């Protein structure tokens, strides 16, 4: 879980405007990459002067930090609720996948940033929570798969780590094409994914 951080907003900054600016910054980071994005570019997208952006944030690093930490905090609120619900292994996987697609729906740009940038950010002390989250994520998924094999819900010959990587990558890569408000809801996409992952695509004899 991300640690509490020192706030960079001024006393009179509007929370609504702050969220709007973070959403704009997230879209720019996702589209162009963090290193290639300047404060001026974000300000241009927001229709303001670059200097005015510093009224709300002290740096683009602060913006990135808040985007990622907010996304992960919300993700783990959902995941922790699933893991504490006492569901069976298959039901836990189904709930985790569904929660993942809901997060993609709510934070598509943040997910895209996380995928592109986290490998380069984990070595920085400010973003140490990314590595903590990755370890916790892996433990949750591997533990659920292992429990499913032990309970006879999943195949005994299942390669747990390979299955985890497949499901993880299959789900989160959706952030590259998913757009909120599209033809299918997050829940419907999750249902289709789960049908393919858990039941396959071939007609059974």
In terms of topology, how is this protein built?
Blueprint: H1 15-32, H2 39-46, H3 50-53, H4 60-83, H5 89-106, H6 108-121, H7 128-150, H8 160-172, H9 186-199
Helix pairs in contact: 1-2, 1-4, 1-6, 4-5, 5-6, 5-7, 5-9, 7-8
Q: Count of helices?
A: 9
Low-confidence stretches: 1-11
Distance between the termini: 46 Å
Sequence of secondary-structure elements: HHHHHHHHH
Name the overall outline. Answer: elongated
> What is the mean predicted local confidence, pLDDT?
90
Oligomer: single chain
Q: Strand tally, please?
A: 0
Structural class: mainly alpha
Helical percentage:
55-70%
Main pleated-sheet profile: none
* Binned strand content: under 5%
Radius of gyration: 19 Å
What does this structure look like?
This protein is an all-alpha fold and 205 residues long. 66% of the residues lie in helices and 0% in strands. It has nine helices and no strands. Mean pLDDT is 90; it is low at 1-11.
Overview in brief:
66% of the residues lie in helices and 0% in strands. The N terminus is likely disordered.
Notable features of this structure?
205 residues, 9 helices
């Amino acid at each position: 879980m991300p640690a509490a951080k020192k706030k960079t907003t001024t006393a009179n900054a509007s929370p609504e405007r702050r969220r709007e600016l973070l959403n704009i910054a997230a879209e720019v980071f996702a589209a162009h990459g963090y290193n290639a994005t300047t404060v001026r570019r974000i300000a241009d997208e927001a229709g303001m002067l670059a200097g005015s952006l510093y009224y709300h944030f002290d740096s683009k690093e602060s913006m990135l930090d808040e985007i990622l930490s907010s996304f992960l905090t919300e993700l783990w609120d959902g995941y922790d609720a699933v893991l504490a619900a006492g569901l069976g292994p298959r039901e836990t996987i189904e709930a985790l996948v569904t929660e993942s697609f809901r997060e993609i729906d709510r934070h598509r740009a943040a997910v895209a940033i996380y995928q592109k940038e986290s490998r380069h950010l984990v070595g920085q002390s400010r973003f140490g929570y990314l590595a903590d989250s990755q370890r916790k994520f892996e433990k949750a998924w591997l533990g659920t798969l292992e429990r499913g094999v032990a309970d006879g819900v999943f195949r005994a010959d299942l390669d747990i780590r390979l299955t985890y990587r497949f499901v993880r990558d299959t789900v989160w890569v959706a952030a590259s094409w998913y757009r909120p408000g599209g033809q299918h809801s997050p829940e419907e996409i999750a249902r289709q994914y789960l049908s393919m992952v858990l039941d396959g695509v071939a007609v059974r004899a």
